[in-house]
Amino acid sequence: MRLTKTQRIAAIALVFAGIVLFLVFRPAPLPVDSGLVTRGPLQVVLEEEGVTRVLDRYVLAAPVTGKLMRVTLEEGDTVRKGSVVASLLPAEFDAREMHESTARAGSGRAVLDEAVARERSVMLNLDQARKRSARYKNLYSEGAISKESFEIAEKEAGVLQKEVEAARSNVAAARYSYEALQSHIDRQVSGKALNVLSPVDGKVLRIHEKSERVMNAGAPLVDVGDPSTIEIVIDLLSSDAVRARAGCRVIITDWGGGRDLEGVVKTIEPAAFTKTSALGIEEKRVNIIAVLKKYEPALGDNFRVQAKIVLTEAPSVLQVPVSSLFRGKSDWNVFVIENAKAVRKPVTIGMRGIWQAEVVKGLRIGDRVVVHPTNDLQDGMRVKTSD
After folding, report:
1. Cα dihedral sign for 283, 47, 353, 334?
2. pLDDT over 90 (residue 201)
């Protein structure tokens, strides 16, 4: 049956209208961000802030209560072992305190005299016991006495020898105690300052109190140490810290210099501590101690740094942005952009870094994938990339 001209025009109009309606009402391509599957080096790291500290740090404290003389040293000054870093004038005694100190010194002197007398008495007994033992030895060899009598004499000499050694130790302890009590009084009488000496060669790291003032015994005065022995303290969540090992490579960044610094993990502290995060959540954290491979003179004590602990790394692997991965029912998946459509594909991943993950199976180099896929994105949906 042949269509009339009017029917043909109507049919063409209907087809054209259908095409127009399809183009007008079909869903617009979903705008997405995309990334490429590439090949290159990949590192699996733990990244956290760290703080430098001097390895051998000595906090010099006031040995007695007294007036601190003004400290003339400056922070950063070099000190030698045995050099004076601070001086204190012991607090002056009043009449009652002087009387008590003199009485304690007298008591100490009496204890010392008693210990000396005890030592002399025991030494005399030991001398007699040795002579008796020698005489019994001759008698025993001649058969004049029994073996038991000879052994008892030898045992008595041995016991007295131990008593002499104990008496000598008591004399030494009593003498040190008396000298300490007497020297305390002598300093009060002489009015001389008590010097605090540096135990090592190093630099002044911190001066807790520079001006003159009365300090209690045990109060910190000056911190001394060697800045070249720097270590870095990195605190991590305990769940992350168990993945680190002594000897792991450490990369120090954002420390203020123009290049990264290399270090290694020295030790992992065995005990965790509780720390409140910026969100107010209590966390269990562990200190990781790292040391630099090469001394950096620009770094000092208590400097802030950014540290990356390298758990594992590879020089060249196929990798995909971590933000493109999402979990399926039993495996990882990505959306690959093919012919302006998002095609869902399962993938097998290996190492997983902060930004990139290793692709073991499922993708090829050069594939373009959707990063940050939304819940609106479905398999086969048309997409439009922003780049």
Report:
1. positive
2. no
